[in-house]
Amino acid sequence: MNKKENFVKGFIKENPLFVSLLGMCPSLAVTTSLENAIGMTMGVFFVLVLSNLIISLIMSNPKLAELVKPVRIPVYIVVIATLVTIVEMFMHAFVIDLYRALGVFIPLIVVNCIILGRAEAFASSNKPVNSLIDGAGMALGYGAAIMLISIFREFLGKGTLTIWGDLQLNLTFFFNFLKIEPIAMFVQPVGAFLTFGLILAGITAIANNHKNKLAKEVTNNG
Amino acid sequence: MNKGFISGIVLLTIGLVCGILLSLVNHFTAPIITREENKIKYAALAEFYTLADYDLSEVEGTGAFGTIYVLKEKGTDNIEALVYTVSAQGYSDSQLVQMLIAVNNDLSVEGYKVVAQQETTGFGADIVENDFNVTIIDNLNDFDAVAGVTKTSNAIRECFTLVSQRAVSDLGGGLSE
Amino acid sequence: MDNLIMIAFSAFIIENIILTQFLGICPFMGVSTKRSSALGMGMAVIFVMLMSSSVTWVLYRYVLETFDIEYMRTIVFILVIASLVQMVETFLKKVSPALYKALGIYLPLITTNCAVLGVALLNISKGYNFVEMIVYTTFIGLGFLFVMYIFSMMREKLDYSPVPKAFKGAPIALVIAAILAIIFSRFGGII
After folding, report:
1. Do residue A89 and residue B33 have CB atoms under 8 angstroms apart?
2. How wide is the angle at C-alpha B159 spanned by C-alphas B155 and B163, nearest 5°?
3. Over chain A, what is the mean pLDDT?
């Protein structure tokens, strides 16, 4: 697998959210606006890239790896929790509105299965550079997925798309054109489950279609 | 040496390194966090006064009074103004009108703001925008009640009365910190 | 007392941990295919949640706050939870093999269950005292068990239902969860 494939796999083929169903809690909770999803993506990106890098640096040194191996899970947890706390402090200091909006879900990045999962499955047995690329790809793939959900939810629920602070697209003309109000249900908990379920079904349908086509091509060629 | 023991020490070392790192970051971010938190906390106060011009302290009030903010002239003990958090009853016990009332040391009212009210929505709600013409708190006669929402305006009048009863002594230095 | 009843009721129904706070979604989706496993997971979560919340609450109030190192809470809490889970596992294995057989397989999953860490953090940010914390945690746990159980019953029925191909598995489960969430969101009007 070359570096480009390594980076791209997190977006579609091994997308942590839509394919592996990892990290669902924040993807449901913070997707009420695009801005929150972007903030969450930045947090996950920082933590995942650095945790992958640090863990891979520790484990690629054979002597150190030997010592760490029996206690590797606690070591991973300590490294990840430290990075998460740093993210939390920086968000609290510099983007306090976002910090308040994300709330308990910032410290909960610690228990996001994606991060511990990548540490155990990839970073512990790969070179630092590859681990870094893997982390970046996975984090951005996850980010793309939660942004997709939040775009649907914010647009349908409020008729806006908030990118950052006051930078907001107002799309209510769409609802005015149809002579209806935005569907507030989509920014409530109900909408989280419903949007995620429907998007997942859509993706499954596309994937099935794709598979069928491939299968047909194989039979035709055979 | 015992392998488990060494692993334990490795874990402890990593933990220690992380702890030190965190305290460093905390050292750097903690003052900014306090400043940002205060900015939100004092956002309502900033509508009345430029906070940077004063020394600000807080006193916890009793009874109907919440936090009382004391604004002193920079570097001295002269109280320039007091901002009271005060609440009074509207229709029932659970329905409180909470106000911020800013009083200058000449007893003139710099401003007031209803910060929380659970009153008849609609009627009660637009009372915040009405002007009550309360300019001096020891003269409450020019307080104009808005017709139709007398209960709420009574609550607001009550808030002003409570403040007027203690402001003179508070501004005279009677406020114990 | 009124206060405690209020906390219990809102923790159980109105602020339901799964359907309104979105914590513990992984086990909610992962181990809710059978009633028995939903029950086992729910019990294990209540057990670990109560223990870890008590320990972390005491640690926070009497150690972290005393030494002014509140910022270490995430790291301390997650280590407490991980080691507690490990201890409970070893303890159960020795003392009650039957219970271990019932709950054992769910225990390792709980370390990365955001519900446990989430509740420990929420107890702190809500500023509860010890009794309120115990009540809140118990009823959050019961709410988790309750919703898990209802959901597993629905999913058992789903096995015999003709579901469109694209919706098989997770998508239809999420749509069902959305319907459950509608029901629970209406309970908010009671208070």
Report:
1. yes
2. 165
3. 88
Which of residues C135 and C20 earns the better pLDDT score? C135
DSSP secondary structure code for residue B145 in this structure: P
Picking from C33, C114, C144 by the largest number of A CB atoms within 10 A of its own CB, the best residue to mutate is C114
Across the interface, do A108 and C25 touch by the CB < 8 Å criterion? no
pLDDT 10s digits, B117-155? 544 333 334 444 444 545 555 555 455 444 444 555 667
Q: What is the dihedral of CA A7, C74, A30, C53, to 10 degrees?
A: 130
B79 φψ region: left (φ > 0), alpha (ψ -120 to 50), beta (else): beta
Contact assessment for residue C7 and residue C191, using Cβ atoms and an 8 Å cutoff: no
Chain-chain contact of C71 with B26 (C-beta, under 8 angstroms) = yes
Tokens coding C153: 């019953």
Which chains does C contact via 3+ CB–CB distances below 8 A? Answer: A, B
Question: Looking at chain B, which runs of residues are DSSP E strands?
Answer: 54-60, 65-73, 79-89, 96-104, 109-117
Nearest CA in chain A to B21: A82
Any bridge partners for residue B87, and if so which?
A: B98
Collect all residues of chain A within an 8 Å Cβ-Cβ radius of residue C174: 193-194, 196-197, 200
Please list, in sequence order, all residues whose beta carbon lies within 8 angstroms of the beta carbon of residue A142, skipping any fewer than 6 positions away.
Answer: A10, A15, A16, A17, A23, A41, A44, A114
Could you count the other beta carbons within 10 Å of the beta carbon of residue A66?
13
> From the CA of B4, how many Å to the nearest CA of chain A?
8
- Identify all chain B residues contacting A92, using CB atoms and an 8 Å cutoff: 29, 33, 36
For residue A19, the SS3 value is: coil
CA dist A196 to A148, A200, A210, B22, C98, Å? Answer: 10, 6, 21, 36, 38
Distance CA A155, CA A191 (A): 12
Q: Could you tell me which chains touch chain B, where touching means 3 or more CB pairs under 8 A?
A: A, C
Instruction: Please write the tens of the pLDDT for every residue from B79-113.
Output: 888 888 887 765 544 456 777 888 887 777 777 77
pLDDT digits (tens, 9 = 90+) for A46-74: 999 999 999 999 888 888 888 888 888 88
pTM: 0.80
Q: What is the dihedral of CA C111, C115, C117, C120, to 10 degrees?
A: -140
User: Helices (H), strands (E): how many in chain C?
Assistant: 9, 0
